[in-house]
């Protein structure tokens, strides 16, 4: 049924806000922006676009860092009216979940489930990201060290393909056989897919279409960055909120002390995670700040010690009965690794813990603000490496950056061997130099068996580096998958797969 009342606009003033995102990528353009409110509206838009071969770019809340929502012509499909929270299901068996539309932010979802004593474990840094966009990039964040990425917590997805097919995908259904073949049944058509054969790196991964032996079809769509379909309903797993947290932002006089501290806490946590002993070291968050990150943060927080060269933000879930034993163990470790104890910050209250998280979340915002001042696009890494190259990675970053002449800072998820190197060029000449450094880092990370994108995706910015990682054959295999599910080739043009591979 055609909805003649669906909001849609050709007005440049309405379209312009959708031509940008947090990547600062320029050059976006579109003829129209549409605001579907239900599945019928989405199908109507896609049917029209298929008939005219008009590109459709799916737009979330604009928090992406790789330009995925920047349109290169055609129609912008905004998801903002496709709904938020629909249901929170409480179960006596422990399988609690929420059902949402794509247009609820992480902050809103966490607030709603918290009122029920529950927690959605994925914890992206950008709390204003729509849940639909987080699924589209397989977002992760600070708690990934303990709980894994978004993928681990998605039970079910409803997806509209450009063919108008509705796919209702539940984890454990539509499973790949030993040869990597999956048969999908949509509301209009059946799809026979042969999965790509490229290897997936260990650890966090948001780098093209996900493939692994025996996988459920749902995982093909998680991390597909708007190139395969439009999400209209998402079912996420929930857990009970912890009794409390013990957290700290601990400062160090040398970078190496923070590196060794983080490595020790990581190994202790992994060793103790299956022990079922309540007072052991078991961090759910271990985040790193280099000296340049601390300098940036000093502009908004004057309490940072002047002699601090690095810092770690840690967070551990605690049990009230064993809180004292747990915190004592943390202080013992802090003394062992030369933490500037008298100048470090610790807390057990939820309010202070929120302040610590705000402190951590402020860094990317400060970086992006600075880039906008210089009219420069986002130039940041999203790499992970195998653990055996953890210290190699840290030394590589230091040797590549310290005498580069390009302003930079390093922060992020050190427990996952995943740090964000943010280059902050002040002009186009420095930007070109920054990209040369980036390419050098890419080459080494791939050589170590790492990934070029752990949580932000590929979008329009990182396609050439994905090609370096998976090769031409891998890109061709992804293009075949896309053309099976999107035969009109209209969805997310410019994202992940270079145009040449779709046109062959």
Describe this structure as you would to a colleague:
By secondary structure, the chain is of the alpha+beta class. It has five domains: 7-78, Uridine Diphospho-n-acetylenolpyruvylglucosamine Reductase, domain 2, CATH 3.30.43; 85-240, Uridine Diphospho-n-acetylenolpyruvylglucosamine Reductase, domain 3 (2-Layer Sandwich); 243-364, Alpha-Beta Plaits; 374-457, Alpha-Beta Plaits; 463-503. Helices cover 33% and strands 20% of the residues. The protein contains 14 helices and 18 strands. The chain has helices spanning 12-15, 39-52, 106-114, 131-137, 144-147, 218-221, 255-272, 291-298, 323-336, 350-373, 390-401, 428-447, 463-485, 499-503, and strands spanning 7-9, 32-35, 56-59, 75-78, 85-89, 96-100, 118-119, 154-160, 166-170, 181-185, 190-194, 230-240, 244-252, 283-290, 310-318, 345-347, 408-413, 418-423. The strands form four sheets. Strands 5, 6, 7, 8, 9 and 12 form a six-stranded antiparallel sheet that branches. Strands 16-13-15-14-17-18 form a six-stranded antiparallel sheet, with helices on both faces. It starts with 6 loop residues before the first strand and ends with a helix.
